[in-house]
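Question (not urgent): is this output format expected?
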Amino acid sequence: MKKVLALILVAVLCVGLLAGCGEEPTPSVTGSGEQPSGDPVELTVWLPVYQFSDGGISDEDFWNEKLDAFEAENNCVVNVEILSWTDYATVIYTGMLSDEGPDVCYVTETFDLIDAGLLAPLDEYITEEDRELYLFLDQGAYDAEGNLCTWPMMAGNPCVIFYNMDMLEAAGITELPTTWDEFFDVCVALKETNPDVWPFIQSWGASNGVSALLASFWPFFFQAGGTVLDEEGNLNLDSEATLEVLNYINKFKTEGIFDDSIVTMDDPNGKFVNGEAAIIINGTGNASTFTEKGIDWQCSLGLEGSGGLATNFSVDSLAISNFCEDKALAAELIKYITSAECMDDYHEQIYGMPSLTTDATYTEPEPFQSMYTNDADKMHVVPSFEGSASFMDQFQQNVQGMLMGQLTPEQVIEQTMAYYNEQIVA
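Got this back:
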């Protein structure tokens, strides 16, 4: 019978660290669900809390019920521990340093875990049927050898372009733009029609670089054909795609679409809600708020740049610890957790997110469901890399300098990469 626990004290993890540090991960056994002694294999799974509403079934009760079938079929015991989000990435990293940590774990920030060799490669457990069934499998995290180390579990909320259609129609615009050039022309038309309203707005004054780049840089970067990491896993932002995007963003300032306050702008969503901006790029999860505020909106997945149509979205995943003694069984557990059998109910009872598999029940409203089903290959994850938060903070500061006329796009790249190479990876 499985036990469902809550992680209470990080000190408990430290006991495991003292016992486990320095040990080599134990090789995987057969995946039969039995130990050599004949006893059932035990697997420990760490998942974060996602039931935030009052009165609903708890995460503990949900998984307690769902995993009974897997345990019975595989003659194993699954111990699920539900963690809070407080210092989640740190707790995960600390726990996975030890063989007393989880066998299967929900991961958000993966660079340090992969760099330390704490995650097991998953490729040998992936079948052709899996690749046909799972929509976002390729959006997991990879090690330096190109091995997939994470299995997407919570994928969604891509950054899409929202348009206030009343403002567009007042400017004589009846069709949404599809290319960078068309988009800029729409912004010019909006500015001429209503100079007191932002035609388009970005969040270059966000509180940190991660937030600033989320909707202001990455969608355009992927549309320009950019890849965040090269084939060796090194940061690939010193690129033609980056320069192309920076020149495009700078054009909005030099041509008067942005004013000087763009470098302090931290709430594009609020401007759109209040009717002070005609176009924003934001996550799909904001659509209900726009509807509640009575905005007649339409959206598109993104624009076509030199690299085609694309945007960014987020993916949190499941991973197998290198200390896991039965990696084959752990892989089967991951497939079960992310199957339609589990996730259809999870999305209904615990937390709604897009479906992971082609056989799942789709619950997203239109137009978003069509995006997930038809354009999953156009949604790209920004992978975790060394010093990513510090890099993005510096990048944001240098883009602000560009928008104030202090730096050229070329200098933004040069100075940001110099900082990264000298201060982060040196």
